[in-house]
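Practice problem: predict the structure.
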Amino acid sequence: MQKVNGIVTLASAGVLTLLLSTPGTPARNPKENAPQGPAVLWRDPADIRSRNLVYGAGGKAHEPKAPFKFDKEDTSGTNPKFDIVDANGIEWTVKMGDEARPETAASRLVWAVGYFANENYFLPVLKVENMKHLSRGSHYVARDGTVKNVRLKRHGKEQEKIGTWQWGDNPFKDTREWYGLQVMMALVNNWDLKDINNAVYQVRGDHPEQRYLVSDLGRSFGPNGLGPGAKNNPKAYLRSKWIGKPSSGAVDFKVPAGPAWSSLFNPAEFRRFGYTWIGRDVPAANARWVGQLLAQLSPDQIRDAFRSSGYSPAEVEALSAEFQRRIATLTAL
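Answer:
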């Protein structure tokens, strides 16, 4: 057990876990809704080559089961969403529109190397019973309750969202794993790195812990910043500039890029300049570490991440090839 920057890295049974400096401490508050256990950002995936990127973090066992019944509309965020309940009584959030494919693929690749991710599944066709009229996104829904090309996010009883976290203020700041998560965001071109898109989930039970993750990955696999075609744009991903030349042992990634200067007249978008520091001045050794983890994935595993997310065969091949080129760039640093 080694303490670095107030963080303890604990090795046990071949599994590394990044924890706060008091692993195994009891709940800070005996109340059920109080945060319990250590904070965790990354866990060693042990055997990356065995990870199933068809199903991702939830595996085949947690696949959504028909029939599905409408629960309520979700008006949070900018993308139209609603909640459903499946045949097993599991609640799911359905995201429609351009973010469904990239979010599913990105969640699989982030999870593949040990970061936490939501249990996301892509369905080309979803039939919903008792579907109600939506205030947003009603044009995606057919009269019979059919919705095409959606992402389903599972809400398991084993964990609950208890808050958000900030890139600049969290228990893992300046650690290898913190830098590594920034590298992963650059790899997938996730430029929408507002703090509100980060979540903390409480896992209870015999081994409680607080899991830190990027919970909204919908702006991945497009350009490196806000602009025309900023969502689900594989062609923009292929031609985007995502990394600079290393200097003095560090590298600057070009994701997220700053918004256009025209956003000076849009305060909400102009605030994105405040996030452009993320991914800059990353120690090359930490970026190379992420590349070495990703290099353990086979080409078919990478393709599976895109196949299971509804991309066309041509897009699967192009995105997979580009992602592999980016991995090679990291390992060569």
